[in-house]
Design a protein that fits this description.
Shape of chain A: globular
Structural class of chain A: mainly beta
Number of strands of chain B: 12
Largest sheet of chain B: 6 strands, mixed
Strand content of chain A: over 45%
Oligomer: heterodimer
Low-confidence stretches of chain B: none
Radius of gyration of chain B: 13 Å
Distance between the termini of chain A: 33 Å
Strand content of chain B: over 45%
Low-confidence stretches of chain A: none
Mean pLDDT of chain A: 92
Number of helices of chain A: 0
Mean pLDDT of chain B: 90
Order of helices and strands of chain A: EEEEEEEEEEE
Chain lengths: 115, 114
């Protein structure tokens, strides 16, 4: 089984709808991240969480919210989806035991289309 | 602010040829540097990372990268391309004082011709 899973893998929705993307991990890592990937722009950080009680905004958090329900679960919500939120969304985790060079482990991604 | 520039959104090589993917970073102090690979319909996985221990870093699948402070570069190379290397490659920088953050380049798609 995959260490970092994301559901759904694909989603098509309409403008104004509320959408939740879910991420689960079995790696036992404390840190979790949400990124979006757009062609030609690489990955950009939306939110990150160091533990259940510590959630932080990334560089493009407007229009998004997150919930860290447990150490293993980190959900991303779009309260009112808009077309320019059409993108590939990745969840990632990292292990603090490596010190200052955390390797991040990525899920398979969720392709979201907002019509 | 730290940033990463990847020169060339697409690179095409013949099977068996040298692979060279370019990455330059901007930072006032040497950061931590990473190369990630994304195969079609998959998430990213780590190829290698520079943590200041050695300037030449060897990664998985025969890839390596050399940190050159004077050129602020961390180019990725592989002596002989294989068809299975076709993927998108991302260079990323992590500030030494904020190791949890990754700042990604825009990516380079590697095409391998038979």
């Amino acid at each position: 089984d995959a260490d970092v899973t994301q559901t759904p893998r694909n989603r098509i929705t309409k403008t104004g709808k509320r959408i939740m993307l879910e991420c689960s991990q079995t790696k036992g890592h404390d840190r979790m991240y949400w990124y979006r990937q757009d062609p030609g722009l690489g990955l950009r950080l939306i939110y990150y969480s160091f533990d259940v009680k510590d959630i932080n905004k990334g560089e493009i958090s407007d229009g998004y919210s997150v919930s860290r329900q447990a150490q293993a679960k980190f959900s991303l919500s779009l309260e009112s989806a808009i077309p320019n939120q059409t993108a590939l969304y990745f969840c990632a985790t990292s292990d603090t035991t490596q010190g200052v060079t955390d390797t991040q482990y990525f899920g398979p991604g969720t392709r979201l289309t907002v019509l | 602010a730290q940033s990463v520039t990847q020169l060339g959104s697409h690179v095409s090589v013949s099977e068996g040829a040298l692979v060279l993917l370019r990455c330059n970073y901007s930072s006032s102090v040497p950061p931590y540097l990473f190369w990630y690979v994304q195969y079609p319909n998959q998430g990213l996985q780590l190829l290698l990372k520079y943590t200041s221990a050695a300037t030449l870093v060897k990664g998985i699948n025969g890839f390596e990268a050399e940190f050159k402070k004077s050129e602020t570069s961390f180019h990725l190379t592989k002596p002989s391309a294989h068809m299975s290397d076709a993927a998108e490659y991302f260079c990323a920088v992590s500030p030494y004082d904020s190791s949890y953050k990754l700042i990604f380049g825009s990516g380079t798609r590697l095409l391998v011709r038979p």
